[in-house]
């Protein structure tokens, strides 16, 4: 059975809170016990010393029935709510504070306790004091010395039941405070857990919506922490998925268009030949058109497979040093026919006569072919194409610039997309396959180089880098 994160957090933090307060309660129990006992003990010692001072004279002269001493003992008995005994040097009880304790007169202390007093040491004990007390008590004993000679001692007994009663009252108040604190802590915990679990639940529900193909779903989470950051990341992901889905649909539409055009032409010409619509003397001409269109279909298919292999990391790269300027000249000669037909002005400027670079020559030639072909296609008649190499540290930047209508910043970001047609007024890859720049981008990426495009009033410029040999 699945347990919600809210329940898990509530149980986990709840156990932590209860454990923490339980430790606090036990610690407080011990501290309160020590406090009340020590406080009571200190008071008993203080009063015991005072009684010892007065008892010293009585014990010295042996006047155990001193009315003054007995009155003081009775007053302290009521003030301290404690019983006071005076013992002589032999450990015999010679005076008591309460009339109900007169039966103890003449009884002797245990030898061990008397020895403590005789050594000048105080006595501390809990219990019935060897059965001499009717209830458990806290007892302190203070020795009496006269002229450095042991004369007896004073014993003060306070009921532990009374101390424990005071302790229980204080502990009860502390326990109530702890329980209220636990309740408040649980309330705060519940609110905090909701602040965590509700956005997570919202993200989970949104993920299900997106999984169903509704990529427009967005989240509005404002928690000011990592969960809000997660929500923003989720929105970025949803936006990316929406763009990917849009690109996928456009890609399918563009591929369908680029494949349908030559197939429609092939079908039309073949039907014309079969049904005799096309005269026999023109059949060879139209068969050549059919052949060209079929080659075009094969080229589209091959380029799609090639791009797919590149993106799957199957591109074989053979790095070698070669002379770049001569490679550029050969590629310009290959496009001489198109350049001449459109009466284009082509210039090639280089920063040095010979520039040796380290790359895959075949792939660089492929990049140059696509960029020059692109420039020839979209440069208006009598326009200009400029190819230039620039030294940039350990690399060479190669620029291919052509005159023509400027491309908007939005379109610049999409020129690398497969089969992207671009602005209708520009006619990007009109009559082409829409794969050239996508292949260029992938090749440059596989070579670990950089390529970018810029455009301004009347020009478009592609720039890519090549490492120097």
How would you portray this structure in words?
This protein has 469 residues and is α+β, with helices and mostly antiparallel strands. The chain has three domains: 160 residues, PAS domain (Beta-Lactamase); 86 residues, Signal transduction histidine kinase, dimerisation/phosphotransfer (DHp) domain (Helix Hairpins, Orthogonal Bundle), CATH 1.10.287; 148 residues, Heat Shock Protein 90. The protein has eleven helices and twelve strands. A five-stranded antiparallel β-sheet has the order 2-1-5-4-3, with helices on both faces. It has a five-stranded mixed β-sheet with strand order 7-9-10-12-11. A hairpin with a 2-residue loop joins β9 and β10. α1 runs antiparallel to α4, α7 packs across α9 and α9 packs antiparallel against α11. The longest helix is centred in the N-terminal third of the chain and has 57 residues. The protein is rod-shaped and about 160 Å long.
Write a concise keyword list for the protein shown above.
single chain; 469 residues; alpha+beta; Beta-Lactamase; Helix Hairpins; Heat Shock Protein 90; five-stranded antiparallel β-sheet; five-stranded mixed β-sheet; 11 helices
Kindly identify the CATH topology of the largest domain.
Answer: Beta-Lactamase
The CATH class of the largest domain turns out to be Alpha Beta
Strand tally, please?
12
Strand order of the largest sheet: 2-1-5-4-3
The named CATH superfamily of the largest domain: PAS domain
Cα end-to-end separation: 64 Å
How many structural domains?
3
Topology, please?
Elements: H1 5-61, H2 67-80, E1 82-88, E2 93-96, H3 111-118, E3 123-127, E4 137-146, E5 149-159, H4 160-211, H5 226-274, H6 283-311, E6 320-323, H7 324-334, H8 336-341, E7 345-349, E8 356-359, H9 361-378, E9 384-392, E10 395-403, H10 409-412, H11 436-446, E11 451-456, E12 459-467
Parallel strand pairs: 7-9
Antiparallel strand pairs: 1-2, 1-5, 3-4, 4-5, 6-8, 9-10, 10-12, 11-12
